[in-house]
Design goal:
Elements lengths: L2 H21 L4 H14 L7 H26 L5 H23 L3 H21 L12 H18 L4 H10 L4 H27 L9 E2 L2 E2 H22 L5 H23 L1
Main location: membrane
InterPro entries: TM_pro_TauE-like
Family: Belongs to the 4-toluene sulfonate uptake permease (TSUP) (TC 2.A.102) family.
Length: 267
């Protein structure tokens, strides 16, 4: 891995880590398109390049989540009871998500990711929050909600924040607590999804050297080194400022990344 590539991966990791801490989104929506560009340029097998980008991005969230949740926990914002109720369903869903992704070809997976990022960017730019119309459901309902969050997150390599945060807000959880709790949920999402990507990618032919299933470990190591440094800064920033304007600016970036993934799907 040349030093220019290392520098690009460090910048990506820093940006993804800061976004994860600030917005509770896991950083995957930023990382996956850029990792896809890099892996494509390096000549990775085109039939698995998006699968590898998603798997590598998801693995980084294990470390980013631990780093950012410490900062949120210091502010007393993480609702650990909610984490405990959602985590079982999330673990199951996050294992299933990569399995579903493996059944899809690169074009279909690119289209799915692009659609998810477009939806997420629209959420950001409109800044619509669901009206708090109910309380959190019981254990079966929380398991089902966690399963849906996990499946989507495992499929697109993100931390699930764009589902879990609106869901918690709708259930009368304050927004800062929802973001902090979403950051904590990133760890079980990433752990289960990473193990799934290793398992289902293990026998995939033609993967590049140093791959662990669908995960490309050199890129993972470099991105993590930067993301764990920046995630706490993002989390601290989230408690000091109104992030609405920043979210809208970030949404413009997401639209551009979604456009690239749409292009990649048809290229």
């Amino acid at each position: 891995m040349d030093w220019g590539l290392v520098g690009i991966l460090l910048l990506m990791g820093a940006g993804g880590g800061f976004a994860a801490g600030l917005l509770g989104i896991g950083g995957g929506m930023v990382l996956v398109p850029f990792i896809t560009m890099i892996f494509t340029a390096k000549g990775f097998p085109p039939q698995v390049v998006v699968h590898m980008a998603i798997a590598t991005s998801l693995a980084t969230i294990m470390f980013t989540s631990l780093s950012s949740v410490r900062a949120h926990h210091k502010h007393g914002a993480v609702q650990w009871r909610i984490v405990a109720l959602l985590a079982p369903g999330i673990v199951v869903g996050s294992w299933i998500g990569p399995w579903i992704g493996k059944q899809m070809n690169t074009s279909a997976l690119s289209l799915l990711f692009a659609a998810f990022v477009t939806f997420s960017a629209l959420q950001m730019i409109l800044n619509k929050k669901p009206a708090p119309g109910r309380e959190l459901p019981g254990t079966p309902g929380m398991f089902a909600a966690g399963g849906v969050i996990g499946v989507v997150a495992g499929l697109v390599g993100a931390g699930g924040g764009f589902i879990s945060v609106p869901f918690m807000t709708w259930c009368n959880v304050r927004i800062h607590q929802a973001v902090a709790t979403s950051a904590a949920l990133g760890f079980p999402i990433a752990l289960s999804g990473t193990l799934s990507n290793i398992y289902f990618g293990w026998s995939e032919p033609g993967l590049p050297q140093y791959s662990l299933g669908f995960i490309y470990t050199p890129a993972l190591a470099v991105i993590v080194a930067a993301s764990v440094t920046m995630a706490p800064l993002g989390a601290r920033t989230a408690h000091k400022m109104d992030v609405v304007s920043l979210k809208r600016a970030f949404a413009v970036v997401l639209f551009g990344l979604a456009a690239y993934m749409f292009y990649h799907a048809f290229a």
